[in-house]
Amino acid sequence: MFNLLVVDDEKIAVKGITVGIDWEAFPIGQIFEALDVNEAKQVLSQNRIDIMISDIEMPGSNGLQLQEWVRMHSPQTETIFLTGHANFEYAQQAVRLGSFDYVLKPVDHDRLQDIVKLAIEKIKEDQEQLDFHETYKTYYSHWVNELPTLVEKFWQELLSGKIPANEERLTRNFQMYEIPLDMTSRILPILISVEHWKEDLNARDEEIMEYAIRKAAAEIIVVEQAGCVIQENGSSLVLLYVGEGSELSLPDIKAKCEAYISACHRYFQCSLSCYVGEQTPLLKLTAKVADLFQNERNNVTKSNCVLLDNETDQPLMNKPQAPTFSDWIVLLESGKKAELVARIQENIDRLQKTNDVGSETVEAFYYGLLHVVYHVLHKKGLAVHDMLPHQELQDYSSATRSLNQLRNWAVRIATVSCDYMNSHLKGVSAVTAKVCQYIDEHMEEELSREELAASVFLNPAYLSRLFKKETGLSISEYSLKVRMEKAMKLLAETNDKISYVAEQTGYSHFSFFAKMFKKYSGLSPQEYRKNFQG
């Protein structure tokens, strides 16, 4: 619905329009009246006015002056002027001030209605156009914000072969995603390979840190050079754009990569290497990137460095022998953790001193240790995945990336396996007692099932079943029981604030503590204290 304002210093003229014309056939919501310019300004300031019908000649400020004010304070209002003089200067000035039309007095009601109808149609068209532009602006803003993601997806699909590498398709994508390339351009790819995180990271934290190293690569390696950094096959890939007639300085690229490695080591606590490719034509980029991944796979001895195409390890004809795993089976069956870990360390130390270690040697070591673990646990009738989740146990891509990562993985698997064997050789009651003790000693903390399982080197699901079987309570039920009993003791025997009692029993939010206490005891903390202390 549209709002209408009629302005004239003659009240009868105003009523002649507001009352004398039947507006029911028009989508008019409210009709306002004003007898001078000041009164009109007040109405306009307090209400949305879509159409204003105003006399030009009025005492004091006239209609043209009112229109100047409307242009500044209510620009969406369409103005139709009324005048008793067919003065061309008035018409010119009215047009200049942006009025919609003007009508000579005495007012022809039919003509005025026709003009109002046209004004309403114009307002609708203007609103539709405004809505279109606002919608376009919104989606364009979203598109601009998503552009880096769209560019990354384009390169990923090109490298995977999902986008055909023909000139027409590539040119269209370059234009659409504002990539400054054509078919004569070349790309210099740099593969970033994270070799080791100094801190233990869960999957979510590792994903965040990998995002951080990509952002750092854009700031340090790409900098002002046209290019982008994308995620590719679980690694990060820098693509530097090289236009026709341009050349990138390899020493400069190497220096930037070295600075980047140093920054990541300092700020992100990780070691990584950069595999620098050659300036490659667009149509050969997929093959060159595949070469870089192969170079990464072949390299198991060099780390924390910049490696050019001709500097990476090549597949070897004569490979060092893998260790004899039969002795390791005996050590694991006996739960001799220190001896097994020492044997692993000795073998990897020996491999690191050998210059001709290839990826297949690392893979043989990896699969050999896995065989030892599966063989021993199955022999004892134990489920391997109750000891460790499948993704942690068989972390092939990470464990075989370098000798250092192989060492970290192998020591962890050996340690967990031996502790698991020992816990079952000694009896499960000791495990349950240890968990109960851990809960008692960390009552003021918010303990998770995973943290409790880690304290006894068991799978969380297996620990839950074991604990329930031996105690008759779930871990959460036992934890609640211990906390509530301590809370009852503190409420009954001390004058500590209830908020302090909540903190001492592991609840950071008083309201949640009060809810759990009433659910457990049937009384609020205040009622319970009153019953015992009076």
TrEMBL record:
Entry keyword annotation includes RNA-binding: no
Residue stretches in coiled coil: none
Superkingdom in the source lineage: Bacteria
Family annotation (InterPro entries): CheY-like_superfamily, Homeodomain-like_sf, HTH_AraC, HTH_AraC-typ_CS, Sig_transdc_resp-reg_receiver, Tscrpt_reg_AraC-type_HTH
Residue ranges of the TM segments: none
Pfam family, one: Response_reg
Protein name: Response regulator
